[in-house]
Amino acid sequence: MSVAIAAPAAGQRARKIRRVRNSDILLGVVARAVRRSLSDPELRRRLLKEIWIALKRSAAQNVKAVELSRLRGIEAVRVDGPITRLCPLVLSALATILECETIFEFGTFRGETAWLLAHNLPKARIFTLDLPGQDAHDHAALELTDGPEYFTTWDRGGRFRGTPEAERITQVLGDSATFDFAPYSGKVDLVYIDASHSYSYVKADTESAFGMLSELGTIVWDDYTYYPGIYAYVNELAPTLDRPVYHILGTRLALYSRWDIVVPDM
Q1: pLDDT at residue 266 above 80?
Q2: Is there a domain that residue 159 lies in?
Q3: What is the tens place of the pLDDT at every residue in 31-59?
Q4: How many CB atoms are located within 10 Å of the residue 108 CB?
Q5: Cα separations (Å) of 55 from 43, 59, 61, 237, 238?
Q6: In the structure, what pLDDT confidence band is assigned to residue 15 with cuts at 50, 70 and 90?
Q7: pLDDT at residue number 7
Q8: Position 34 in a domain
Q9: What's the number of domains the chain is made of?
């Protein structure tokens, strides 16, 4: 059987394929971005911030950057919670993968992360530590990075208070540099460090975290790519450990785990 193909109507042009590569748009994108950033201070700030984060990530020889998809079993996890902040959602997914029974959080603040963890892990017990009161800002043992605006009102743990999840959340108060962590020794499956972000406090909190870790425990540092104190300490710490430290791309999170949470390179 033969098929007749109609000729294009008079004046009708045949379609042309146009291939566009990154090299074709590079100069235009750079030129427009520079022009806009010169006239828009907020855009300039965001652009420089992203460049700085990328530079820090590239310079981190001791911390391995991995895609979120490399977390073992992440594709099967479903997290229920607000999507305004990615890091707590990823943390909850990670805790689900690890089947955590006991979690310790440095830095309660409003309690949003503690509630999210308890909400998504109905069998987990969460302990969350924060300073004891508004005047603690003036009496901290080490350097605080958070300004007085975090202490003008005091509602630590307000998010989970009065909720069903609160039954499994224990709020403890004290300065993490002087707090007695002995009751938690070797019992914690996940330690989440998100309190003061100074080098001295992150160092102290991390040393306490290792003392609390269970046999297959995991430590997660928030704001690794944001605060210089965390970035510097974690990069110094990483080569001294028995297992790698990973930065999860697209987040501010870095993690150390005694379980093989990251799928190895092919």
Answers
A1: no
A2: yes
A3: 998 888 888 999 889 988 899 989 999 99
A4: 26
A5: 18, 6, 12, 19, 18
A6: confident
A7: 59
A8: no
A9: 1
What tokens appear for 79 in the block? 């997290």
Give the CATH number of the domain where residue 116 resides: 3.40.50.150
- Any domain includes 13: no
Helix orientation angle between 199-212 and 228-237, rounded to the nearest 10 degrees: 50
- Could you tell me the pLDDT band of residue 239, with boundaries at 50, 70 and 90? very high
pLDDT-derived band at 217, boundaries 50, 70, 90: very high
70-123 tens-digit pLDDT: 999 999 999 999 888 999 999 999 999 999 999 999 999 999 999 999 999 999
> What is the 3-class SS of the chain, one letter each residue?
CCCCCCCCCCCCCCCCCCCCCHHHHHHHHHHHHHHHHHHCHHHHHHHHHHHHHHHHHHHCCCEEEECHHHECCHHHCCCCCCCCCHHHHHHHHHHHHCCCCEEEEECCCCCHHHHHHHHHCCCCEEEEEECCCHHHHHCCCCCCCCCHHHCCCCCCCCCCCCCHHHHHEEEEECCCCCCCCHHHCCCEEEEEECCCCCHHHHHHHHHHHHHHEEEEEEEEECCCCCCHHHHHHHHHHHHHCCCCEEEECCCCCEEEECCCCECCCC
95 occurs within a structural domain: yes
> Phi and psi of 25, rounded to 5°?
-105, -5
Domain that holds residue 163: 64-257
Handedness of CA 33, 37, 40, 42 (dihedral sign): positive
- For residues 196 and 143, is the Cβ–Cβ distance under 8 A? yes
